[in-house]
Amino acid sequence: MWRSLGAVIRLQIELDRLKESEQSRYRHELIRGVERLHVTPDGCLGPANEGYVIDIHHAAHPRSRSNGTNHLSIGFTGHYDAMRERFGSHVGLGVAGENVIVERPGLTTVADLGDELRFELADGTTLYVAQPQVMRPCAPFTRFCLADERPPAEELRAGLQFLDDGMRGFKGIPQSSAVLAVGAWLYARAD
């Protein structure tokens, strides 16, 4: 059985690393929205002109930190609502860098995702994503959310805690290749 989670409303790639180190500035300007997302076990590609732009997490990206496992990252609109409420309007939809944003109110936990996700595409094909897990927040993204490059340690720690447990998004391992488009539907295996 599968439980409906919501519709895909945004797709994006990261052109390069959004942070160089835990001390660096968060470079959200390197996130690009795309009309379609070519998802493969090697990573994601976004169509551009006559070719593709390679996501930084793709195994073929020259600056990739790929270790052979290339995740698809997923965020939820309810999490962005909570982040904007806490940090302010500068935390725009997709600024955390997930590849896929799904329309779903409220908070979604890793338990809600189970051990497998399924995207249902308009053409009837499916994309399975295994082993969903929490994407841990980093200090540069937290400082960006706080709008403070040098927050007090306790404020940074509280921000990191707030952004953990999936608030910053989730990631999983694509089990095949597919082309995602806005309107695809996401389901979680319900055991």
Structure at a glance:
The protein is α+β, with helices and mostly antiparallel strands.
Mean pLDDT: 93
Major sheet description? 7 strands, mixed, barrel
Low-confidence stretches: none
Structure annotation, total helices: 4
Proportion in β-strands: 35-45%
What structural class do you assign from the helix and strand content? alpha+beta
CATH fold topology: M1 Pyruvate Kinase, Domain 3
Alpha-carbon Rg, integer: 16 Å
Strands of the widest sheet, in order across it, are 1-7-6-10-9-8-12
Q: Domain count, please report it.
A: 1
Helix-strand sequence: EEEEEEHEHEEHHEEE
CATH superfamily: PK beta-barrel domain-like
Named CATH architecture: Beta Barrel
Determine and state the CATH class. Mainly Beta
- Helical content band: 10-25%
Distance between the termini: 7 Å
Dominant shape: globular
The tally of strands reads: 12
